[in-house]
Amino acid sequence: MVDLVALLIAVILLYQIYLFAWVLWYSVFNPGGSAYMREQASRLAALDRPVSIQYEWTPYEAISPALKKAVIAAEDARFTEHSGVEWEAIRKAWRYNERQEQAGRNRRRGGSTLTQQLAKNLFLSADRTYIRKGQELVITYMIEAIMSKRRILELYLNVVEYGNGIFGAQAAARHYFNVDAARLSTFQAARLAAILPNPRVYGKNLQSRYVQSRGRTISARMRSAILPE
């Protein structure tokens, strides 16, 4: 029994070292995809849907500052200040979701920072388990320890999902507005950020009442959004 426990601990440690090595790699080299992209590609293939993954790496400098501010304003207002995890935001989201469930409503709120979302997208599945959440936290702290905030934001903007099979700023800008990511306006950027909580649903109609209302809120918050140096 002792030997089995020791073996299990060794396997877990080796896996963490493996992940740490990949975090180091991505701090310098750009990913050709992500675990979440591969999972979605498999899902679409299983459904026999003619949807291909749209993804094109775009350097930080070639992404509109408006989109950078919109994403921070929408998803992580204290991005440049925290160390990867906002525990109070997680507690508030937990309480909010409990109230929503008790009221029979479907809308949920996430308490994850941009770094946590990046950790999940790059390395993990979409499963909602305590083990996966724990691993997400470990990877989050690895990322924050190694990468600059600018690099974290660059990676996030390139791998986040913006719709069914649509990943990254360039693919989203092309799909929804037929422009390059560098040319996104404040209005357009705010609408893209508005669909992030559930892009496969909200991305179907950028003219919906929710997206328009959320977009206006994000536009107002963008004025106080702070970009990493």
Chain-wise SSE layout:
Layout: H1 2-26, H2 35-46, E1 54-55, H3 65-75, H4 87-102, H5 114-123, H6 130-146, H7 149-159, E2 161-163, E3 166-167, H8 169-177, H9 186-194, H10 199-202, H11 209-221
Helix pairs in contact: 1-6, 3-9, 5-6, 5-7, 9-11
Short key terms for the protein model shown above:
60% helix; 3 strands; Penicillin binding protein transpeptidase fold; globular; 3-stranded mixed β-sheet; 11 helices
Largest sheet: 3 strands, mixed
Give the spatial strand order of the biggest sheet.
Answer: 1-3-2
CATH architecture annotation:
Orthogonal Bundle
- What order do the SSEs take from the amino end to the carboxyl end, as H and E? HHEHHHHHEEHHHH
What is the number of strand segments?
3
How many independent structural domains? Answer: 1
Give the CATH topology.
Answer: Penicillin binding protein transpeptidase fold
In terms of DSSP E residues, the strand content is under 5%
The average pLDDT is 90
Distance between the termini: 51 Å
The DSSP helix count reads 11
| pLDDT < 50 stretches | none
Q: What is the name of the CATH superfamily?
A: Biosynthetic peptidoglycan transglycosylase-like
Tell me, what's the shape?
Answer: globular
**Class inferred from helices and paired strands:** mainly alpha
What share of residues is helical? 55-70%
Name of the level-1 CATH class: Mainly Alpha
Radius of gyration: 18 Å
